[in-house]
Design goal:
Elements lengths: L5 H5 L2 H9 L6 H8 L4 H10 L3 H7 L26 H23 L3 H10 L3 E4 L18 E6 L8 E5 L6 H16 L3 E4 L5 H10 L9 E3 L13 H10 L1 E4 L11 H12 L2 E4 L7 H12 L3 E3 L10 H8 L4 E2 L3 H15 L41 H12 L4 H12 L3 H9 L5 E2 H8 L3 H13 L3 E4 L2 E4 L1
Parallel strand pairs: 3-4, 3-7, 4-5, 5-6, 7-8, 8-9
Antiparallel strand pairs: 1-2, 2-6, 10-12, 11-12
């Protein structure tokens, strides 16, 4: 397409940045180096012309570098600087030339205008670093994203924002606390930021959307493209967040949610948040990556204490014990921290961090130290493993109160092979994680997964988030 083409003249510079970001094997770090201080159109033209200047820019990233981004979990490519050996620098240049040859061929076969038009048609906006609409808080992120794709709105970032993160394998306790915090923060005009993943993320967003009095707008930061719903079970939640708030990503539309993208996603959640709250996390969970990113950004971290017997709370309890996070017992603990941050950075607020006489701190039982929930116990029908409920089940079975159901279960168990029966015995009447089933049965994860599928098909167990409950 020539410079005189009127279609080319009408395209904004960011359209060329979008075209570059969509190239195969283009990672955020490579895009940032290519566009650093340059016009995207200029870089696009240099790529078409095979400019040698691009080789030197890409060679800054160092090496040895992988051939595909799926092999680079953190995309933290380090420049050689003055200390790099001559051989290493030449290898980096050789790899850069390979990328540039492939990208030049790809660019010659595609056009910028149709891709840009497709974004508008799909309701996807895009902002580039340095533009007025670009969130200023992202400037403090390690490796600031060059582009941010948006479905929905970003104006909620002008007000107070709290990130809520945690494990995908959440317990009932964690899900309830995350939803409660999400709802109560939203009702006070605080935007809830999370990752729209299974478990704690989804619960926090659901809580924010359930707010009834002057709710704030939620914001989700996802690992793949903003048009790639993941996990699929969150499709309805995803659509609600888009309709009432926003979903953002630095990954181009259509990008799959590959594992290496999630640590990068986590640094964006941390940077956009004024306070980060961890509800449940293992010691090695993704939420801990977000905590480390928040520490790098200077974002205060709070954590909800959990059971000392729960693997899902090992990480949160550890960062509290080690002084890396303040304790959250209710929403006022979050508001107190948030009010200080907002006062410091000049963010306007409409909430009061102080408890009122009509809304004091709820009595907090010390029983969480012994593995029990600090919240009031739920109704018996909501807690399948509650002693009263289990006793009622046993009494009903003994008295013939549910003979038909008992007979159905017996017939289903008779259809199971020995492995499936062993897995069934390892599943409790309360939420049981697959990891625990593997430990109890001493079976491999693949064998357990197949048995669980069969048991679910027979109606002997049912899914509960990332866990399973015996029927």
């Amino acid at each position: 397409m020539s410079d005189a083409d009127p279609t080319r003249a009408e395209l904004p510079d960011v359209a060329y940045a979008v075209a570059l970001a969509a190239l195969r094997d283009m990672t955020p770090a490579r895009l940032r180096v290519l566009l650093d201080g340059c016009s995207a159109r200029e870089v696009h033209e240099q790529l078409v012309g095979g400019s040698a200047a691009l080789v030197e820019r890409l060679a800054r990233l160092g090496g040895p570098l992988p051939a595909a981004p799926s092999d680079e979990p953190l995309d933290m490519e380090v420049g050689w600087g003055v200390s790099g050996s001559l051989g290493a620098m030449e290898r980096a240049r050789a790899r850069a030339k390979e990328w540039l040859r492939a990208w030049r061929l790809e660019v010659s076969r595609s056009s910028v205008a149709p891709r840009w038009a497709a974004l508008s048609a799909g309701g996807i906006g895009v902002v580039r670093r340095g533009e007025a609409a670009y969130p200023c808080r992202l400037g403090r992120a390690q490796q600031t994203p060059e582009l941010l794709y948006v479905r929905g709105r970003l104006d909620q970032l002008a007000g107070p924002c709290v990130g809520i993160v945690g494990t995908r394998r959440a317990t009932h306790y964690g899900l309830e606390v995350a939803a409660e915090l999400g709802r109560e923060l939203s009702e006070r005009g605080v935007a809830v930021i999370s990752g729209l993943a299974r478990g704690i993320d989804a619960a926090a967003h659901r809580g924010a959307l359930a707010a009834t009095s002057r709710p704030s707008l939620p914001l989700a930061v996802v690992g793949g493209g903003v048009d790639v719903v993941y996990p699929r079970e969150n499709l309805r939640l995803w659509d609600e967040v888009v309709a009432r708030g926003g979903v953002v990503s630095e990954a181009p539309p259509g990008a799959p949610p590959e594992s290496w993208r999630f640590p990068l996603r986590n640094r964006i959640i941390a940077a956009l948040s004024q306070v980060l709250v961890v509800v449940e996390s293992s010691r090695q969970g993704g939420a801990i990556h977000t905590v480390l990113a928040a520490d790098t950004c200077g974002v205060p971290v709070l954590a909800v204490p959990g059971s000392v017997r729960s693997p899902q709370s090992e990480g949160t309890n550890a960062i509290i014990q080690e002084g890396g996070a303040g304790v959250v017992l209710d929403v006022y603990d979050v508001l107190a921290e948030l009010s200080m941050v907002c006062e410091h950075d000049g963010t306007l607020t409409s909430f009061s961090p102080a408890r009122t006489a009509t809304d004091p701190r709820r009595p907090v039982s010390r029983s969480w130290r012994h593995g029990r929930d600090r919240r009031p116990p739920p109704p018996p029908q909501a807690e399948l493993g509650a002693p009263g409920h289990r006793a009622a089940r046993l009494t009903a079975a003994a008295s013939g109160g549910a003979p038909e159901r008992s007979a159905v279960l017996d017939r289903s168990i008779a259809l199971c092979n020995p492995t499936e029966r062993a897995v069934l015995e390892a599943v409790d009447y309360t939420a049981t994680l697959v990891d625990l089933v593997c430990v109890r049965t001493k079976l491999d994860l693949g064998v357990v997964a197949l048995a669980i599928d069969r048991l679910e098909e027979l109606g002997l167990i049912r899914g509960d988030g990332a866990a399973w409950i015996r029927a």
